[in-house]
Specification:
- The structure holds two protein chains of two kinds.
- Chain A has two helices and no strands.
- Chain A is mainly alpha-helical.
- Chain A has a domain of 30 residues.
- The radius of gyration of chain A is 18 Å and the shape is rod-shaped.
- Helices cover 43% and strands 18% of the residues of chain B.
- Chain B has a seven-stranded mixed sheet with strand order 12-11-10-13-14-16-15, sandwiched between helices. In chain B, strands 1-2-3-5-4 form a five-stranded antiparallel sheet.
- The two termini of chain B are 26 Å apart.
- Chain B folds into three domains: 96 residues, no CATH class; 167 residues; 203 residues, Vaccinia Virus protein VP39 (Rossmann fold).
- In chain B, α5 packs antiparallel against α6, α5 packs antiparallel against α11 and α8 packs across α10.
- By secondary structure, chain B is an alpha/beta fold.
- Classes of the chains: A mainly alpha, B alpha/beta.
């Protein structure tokens, strides 16, 4: 069985979302009765995906810099 | 006169699936696949990951029947009728799983293991461009203590730029939220899942949770955010359901891996803890009325009975720690072990897995067994419909007095039911009303059981069984019987 992977820098976007959400909770209201139960989870997944997508480019940029510096001989 | 039963028996559990239908045919499990499912299925069967997963037993071994085999089957009009009605293109044969069980009969450990298997498959298939259409525990059955993925029509080819895992919400509803409610609120999976096909909605758990809980993981991402975002979303806006493809497949794959790893971390956080205790977890150690010698004599009696009649399939009713289930399994039997305490069953499951014993622990109370559930009460058969006549030995050790006193089931009815369940042996322990444990249970209702004597017990047993042998254990208040069903 695979071990759960360690929290990588996904943690950083999650923390950002957490802080944004804290602010959002100030305007919190009751969930509507006929809300599609999949809607909220789908939007949440998209929000996480958007932030992870930013991380993807961030990783590319750092990889490019590392490559340019080159290994020390 | 009634018509003879058709050899083709559709399995109602698959009736929702637009891509195909399962059916029993002369002891085989077959599946008609139509145009909707054929291409995805063939891609799965041909993929290296698919072959590897089937060989490892993670996915039920499945093969597409060749033209000659299909012709032979379709010569039977009942198969032809089903095949044509469902627009069949191919027929599959699956390896049989001995005893189907449903999530509301599992303990939390088993739901966790089924969830882990689902994520393992989703991630293993990504490398071959495949994915899962859905993420529900109904795709999984158990062979002994091991989960096996059975719904091969759940696999699909993924578009390379697709970064969304569509079963995400269903996985949360059917695996993560029930585990969370079990861990935090102590709700049993039977309480959560018997009446809910699609698990718990985040909104439901939101109402149960305290404000401070909602801000903490995993409530925050599983409960609070989906509830809050769903509530804010305009219901007429369907744009979020439209498939969005990224131009960079590498980025899509990167995002998908993160989403699945996130679910894996959350699942791990909800892993049931070992060493929990319940009323029944120390029962064997503290409440059993045996001295060591007598307990060993009891073990010998059971072991010898099962060996003598080479029992292959055993039902252990009220298994507690699974001590006697393990004896049966070590004798080479496949065992279904029942107890209504899911906490002790967690230990039974862990031990069986560790020792690689064919024991399937199920949280079922035989005096209130799981009902038939779902559409027309046919999607999931009742426990008794699955169990009747499926066992060549039934063990009822130190359990009958609980059924008699606590559940108030008359003795004759208990023996009648045992005779329906077993095809051959019943190993049963009779506990007389003057036994100290019996008296502890009656709590002043001794009058109700004053006529209960060993003679009455034997008379009732003789209606269905012959008494092979009897042995006293621990004085004269407890007797072990080996009974054999009359032809």
């Amino acid at each position: 069985m695979r071990k759960p992977p360690a929290n990588q820098f996904l943690d950083i976007p999650l923390r950002a979302i957490f802080l944004i959400a804290l602010a959002m909770f100030a305007t919190e209201r009751e969930a509507r009765a006929y809300t599609d139960p999949g809607t909220g989870a789908l939007i949440w997944q998209m929000m996480v995906a958007a932030l992870v997508g930013v991380g993807f480019y961030f990783r590319r940029i750092t990889a490019w810099f590392k490559k340019r510096k080159g290994p020390k001989d | 006169m009634s018509e003879p039963a058709s050899p083709t028996q559709p399995i109602p559990a698959s009736f929702r699936d637009p891509a195909g239908s399962l059916f029993h045919y002369q002891g085989r499990i077959l599946r008609v696949v139509n145009a909707i499912g054929a291409a995805d299925l063939e891609a799965f069967l041909a993929s290296p990951a698919g072959r590897k997963l089937m060989a490892a037993g993670a996915v039920v071994p499945t093969r597409a029947l060749n033209a000659a085999e299909c012709r032979e089957l379709l010569a039977d009009p009942s198969v032809r009728e089903l095949y044509d009605a469902r627009g069949g293109l191919m027929i599959l044969e699956h390896e049989r799983v001995d005893f189907p069980s449903f999530p509301y009969e599992w303990n939390a450990e088993m739901l966790y293991a089924a969830g882990l298997l689902t994520l393992d498959l989703a991630q293993a298939l990504l490398a071959d461009g495949l994915g899962l259409k859905d993420g529900t525990p109904y795709n999984v059955l158990f062979r002994g203590p091991e989960p096996v993925f059975i719904d091969v029509l759940s696999f699909e080819r993924r578009q390379p730029g697709d970064a969304t895992w569509l079963p995400y919400a269903q996985f949360v509803r059917t695996f993560l939220l029930p585990l969370l409610a079990n861990q935090v609120y102590g709700l049993g999976l039977d309480q959560i899942l018997t009446t809910r096909r699609d698990g718990l909605e985040p909104e439901e758990v939101y109402r149960w949770s305290k404000p401070w809980q909602r801000l903490r993981p995993p409530f925050f991402s599983l409960v609070a955010m989906p509830t809050w975002l769903g509530g804010k979303h305009k219901q007429d806006d369907t744009s979020i359901y439209r498939k969005k493809l990224l131009s960079d497949p590498e980025k899509a794959r990167y995002i998908l891996d993160h989403v699945l790893n996130g679910l894996r971390r959350t699942l791990h956080r909800l892993k049931p803890v070992e060493g929990k205790s319940s009323v029944w977890s120390d029962y064997m150690a503290t409440n059993n009325n045996y001295t060591t010698d007598h307990f060993q004599a009891k073990q010998r009696f059971v072991g010898e009975a099962l060996a003598e009649f080479s029992s292959r399939s055993v039902l252990d009713v009220g298994c507690n720690t699974g001590h006697f289930s393990a004896i049966a399994a070590r004798n080479g039997a496949k065992v279904v072990a029942l107890d209504y305490d899911p906490v002790v069953l967690g230990d039974v499951w862990r031990n069986a897995r560790q020792e690689k014993l064919e024991i399937l622990p199920l949280a079922v109370n035989l005096t209130r067994p799981s009902p038939a559930t779902g559409w027309r009460n046919q999607e999931c058969a009742s426990f008794l419909d699955r169990a009747r006549g499926k066992f060549d030995a039934v063990l009822m050790l130190a359990v009958i007095h609980h059924m008699l006193v606590t559940e108030r089931v008359p003795l004759a009815d208990i023996i009648d039911l045992a005779a329906e369940l077993t095809t051959n042996l019943l190993v049963v322990e009779f506990v007389a009303p003057d036994d100290s444990m019996f008296q502890r249970l009656t709590r002043g209702r001794e009058e109700l059981h004053k006529d209960l004597t060993p003679e009455l017990f034997e008379t009732l047993c003789r209606k269905h069984f012959e008494i092979v042998r009897m042995q006293y254990v621990e004085g004269t208040t407890r007797r072990l019987y080996l009974l054999r069903k009359r032809a």
